[in-house]
Structures are given as structure tokens and as C-alpha cells.
From TrEMBL:
The name this protein goes by in its record: Pyridinium-3,5-bisthiocarboxylic acid mononucleotide nickel insertion protein
Keyword Transmembrane helix: no
InterPro entries, per the entry: Ni_insertion (IPR002822)
Stated family: Belongs to the LarC family.
One Pfam family this sequence matches: Ni_insertion
Gene3D superfamilies given in the database record: mk0293 like domain, Transcriptional regulatory protein pf0864 domain like
EC identifiers of the protein: 4.99.1.12
């Protein structure tokens, strides 16, 4: 599994993220080519090498034309349709349509929309308005659209399967926003980072921007120290500010997750990941239809799906549908529920769960190779469970009892683990 670790010791912003990914191997030419598929103009990208407290890093600047500080072809089109004279605001629905109607790759569209959705959801809550009515100030400017879509392009090019992050420092002090002066973190940034591990900083600056927070909230699936991995590349993305005692850079580490955590590794706390819990009540669907829904939700990327018997109004028996989903699949699962069930709404909660380290190995047994799932804590394998489908197939192929094959797989997995323990 190819993973990306975000070391956010000096915070994160959109331009820092793009710059770090380029320094780690993403192509700036590919990014610029893909961005041309969006109906925006009046800007150019400037890539440079800078030194931040002795660290060499990539710095991205989005240079706007003097006569096009916050305009794009898409906005001009909507202005002509709506007879609007305001050029400084851009609605969330307009941005989504712009991305949807572009020729960007599907995965880039999906990631870009996830990032914008996490920001728009926070803005809607802060201003107490429907999400489709959210209009953006700083985040809707050309440079922010570029940062978000460029991030999606770079992640897709690097073929990142999972993103893990350190806790997010937010800074302190005050910042001038479109609505006035606010304490750091800004309201939007803090709302976006709800249920995300953050940490304090005495630096009187904004270390994490709404764009950076949106990237973390929508793309990161786990938080904690750097995981056991084989590093393939490292990138540093520079921020604009020069901090007094540390480099203002975002460090990213790209690599492959290692197969086994060795016993001599340092003791690590349980890893944390963000999950979305989706729920709804249903009392007028058949068992066959509910079975179809469960199967479809797993195909959409749900982590788990289950039904709980309940009694509803007028003593009607019904079911509570509960879906656990990662941030990347939650929206697609929600839309599938709306489409395929009779519910009129879906409740959503975002939680952080602590999880054991996980690994999968294939062990040779008298019944052929069988995959075994391993649960790992503090560098030690504490539990090994054979894959059901492998055991079932081996039992059928060898005309053996299921429990006989299952027990053999566990014994051979334990033997392999003992042989691999450091002496």
C-alpha cells in the first residue's frame, strides 16, 4: 500500500501541500496541463527553490494578472446569467459545477470536490445557511481553486492509497478575514478541523489555513506518528512566512507500508483515524432490497454496514441502517442511501476511532496458501485471524473440515511469526 505521511510541524496550507508533493516527485508540468482543463484564466504558476531555516524547499506562487485578480471565465458566465456585478464571491455550487463539467480525471474531480465540500460544510454551519448558498471569499479566489485541484492532481499522479498525518498545529494571535479580525484559528479553520487532532502553538501566526484544513479533513484517514514504512521520496513545501525558530515548511513522506512491525521498534500509541457514521430508519423495504443496499454500500467503499431491528411510530417494526465510511467514501455512500432506500434523510456523525495496526500475510499450510490478518500493538502481533474465504475454499478443495483448515492456518501463522522475531 502506497502511503503519504504529512508532517505538519509548521502547519499546512494549499500552496505548501502542492509544493511538497512536487518536491516529492509530482510533475509541475502535469499539474499545469490538468489545470488548463478548468475554465479559469488570468494567472500563471511560478515554481521556485527557496531556503527556510537551512531547509531547501519548493515554493509555489500563483501570479494573477493585474486586471484579473479574482475573475475567471466560469464566474463571468454566471454573472451574465444572473446579471450580477459582484466579482469577489464564488458560490460552492458554481465551483462544483465547474469541476464536474471539466475534463479532469474522475479521481481528481472526486478529491477536489471532497476538499471543497469539507470547507463548504463548515462555512454553512458557521453562517447558518444551506450549503448550496455558501459563497467563498479567500477560498474562492483563483489561487485557492488552483491549490485544491493541483493537490488532487498530484495525489492522483503519485498513486497515493492512504494519507496519514501528524496532529495539526493551528497557531495563535489574530488574523484579518473578509468579515473582520478574528482569533487564530479562524472560525472556518476551527470548524473544518472538528474531530481532527490539533495541537497548540505559541507562534502568533495562522499556521493552518482553511484550504490546508480542508485537505486534511477530507483526505487524511489516520492521525499519529509516522508509520512503519519504506520511504521512496520526501518533499518540502515552503510557506510564505519566515518563522523565528523553525522552518516554515510542510514535510511529506511517500512510501510503502511495511509488512511486519518488528518487536524492537519503539512503543507506539494506537493509531487514530477519522470515520463517518451514517444512519437512517427504514420501515417499508423488503429484506431483498435491504440486502441489495448492503452489497452496494460495500461496493461504494463502506467500512462496515449493519442493520439493527427497531420499533418505529405506530408500533411498526423497522430497521436502523448504520454505515461506517472513510472520509473518501462517505459522500458517495450517503448519496447511494438516498437513491436506493426509502428514507427521507440521513444522519451523519464524524468520529475518531483508535485502531490497532493491521497487516495481511500469506502462510503456506497443508491446504495451500491462506491469507491471515494480523493485529499489531506496540510492534507485537497480538492476534492472527485467517481469511474466511481462503479457509472456505481450501476446505472445499481438500475436502477437509472448516475448523481443521482454520486451526492449521493459525498454527502455521504463529510458527512463521516466531521464526521472524528478532533474536
Amino acid at each position: 500500500m502506497k502511503i503519504l505521511y504529512l508532517d505538519c510541524f509548521s502547519g499546512i496550507s494549499g500552496d505548501m501541500m502542492v509544493s511538497a508533493l512536487v518536491d516529492a516527485g509530482a510533475s509541475p508540468e502535469r499539474i499545469e496541463t490538468e489545470l488548463k482543463k478548468l475554465p479559469i484564466s488570468g494567472y500563471k504558476l511560478q515554481w521556485s527553490k527557496v531556503i527556510k531555516k537551512g531547509i531547501s524547499a519548493i515554493k509555489l506562487d500563483v501570479i494573477l494578472d493585474d486586471n484579473c485578480r479574482d475573475r475567471d471565465a466560469y464566474s463571468r458566465h454566471h454573472d451574465s446569467l444572473n446579471h450580477s456585478t459582484s466579482h469577489s464571491h464564488r458560490h460552492y455550487s458554481h465551483i462544483v459545477d465547474m469541476i464536474n463539467h471539466s475534463e479532469l480525471p474522475p479521481e481528481v474531480k472526486k478529491r477536489s470536490q471532497q476538499i471543497f465540500h469539507s470547507i463548504a460544510t463548515a462555512e454553512a454551519k458557521i453562517h447558518h445557511i444551506p450549503i448550496e448558498n455558501v459563497h467563498f471569499h479567500e477560498i474562492g479566489a483563483i489561487d485557492s481553486i488552483v491549490d485544491i485541484v493541483a493537490t488532487a492532481v498530484a495525489l492522483e499522479e503519485l498513486k497515493i492509497d492512504q494519507i496519514i498525518s501528524s496532529p495539526i498545529p493551528v497557531g495563535s494571535g489574530y488574523i484579518d478575514c473578509a468579515h473582520g479580525t478574528y482569533p487564530v484559528p479562524a472560525p472556518a479553520t476551527l470548524e473544518i478541523l472538528r474531530n481532527v487532532p490539533i495541537k497548540a502553538s505559541k507562534l502568533p501566526f495562522e499556521l493552518t489555513t482553511p484550504t490546508g484544513a480542508g485537505i486534511v479533513k477530507s483526505q487524511v484517514t489516520a492521525f499519529g506518528p509516522i508509520p512503519a514504512m519504506t520511504i521512496s521520496s520526501i518533499g518540502y513545501g515552503a510557506g510564505t512566512r519566515d518563522l523565528p525558530n523553525q522552518p516554515n515548511v510542510l514535510r511529506v513522506v511517500v512510501g510503502e507500508m511495511v509488512d511486519v512491525l518488528l518487536e524492537h521498534e519503539c512503543s507506539l500509541p494506537l493509531q487514530q483515524e477519522v470515520i463517518h457514521i451514517l444512519e437512517c430508519h427504514v420501515d417499508d423495504m423488503s429484506g431483498e432490497a435491504l440486502g441489495y443496499v448492503m452489497e452496494g454500500l460495500f461496493q461504494k467503499g463502506a467500512l462496515d454496514v449493519f442493520y439493527t431491528p427497531i420499533f418505529m411510530k405506530k408500533n411498526r417494526p423497522g430497521v436502523l441502517l448504520t454505515v461506517l465510511a472513510s472520509p473518501n467514501s462517505a459522500e458517495e455512500c450517503e448519496q447511494f442511501i438516498i437513491k436506493e432506500t426509502t428514507t427521507l434523510g440521513v444522519r451523519k456523525n464524524i468520529c475518531i476511532r483508535s485502531i490497532l495496526g493491521r497487516n495481511s500475510v500469506s502462510v503456506p499450510t497443508p491446504y495451500g496458501n491462506i491469507r491471515v490478518k494480523q493485529a499489531i500493538q506496540n510492534g507485537k502481533i497480538i492476534r492472527q485471524v485467517p481469511e474466511y474465504e481462503d479457509v472456505k475454499k481450501a476446505a472445499t478443495d481438500y475436502q477437509a473440515a472448516f475448523l481443521e483448515v482454520y486451526t492449521a492456518a493459525v498454527e502455521y501463522a504463529r510458527k512463521r511469526s516466531r521464526e521472524e522475531e528478532p533474536q
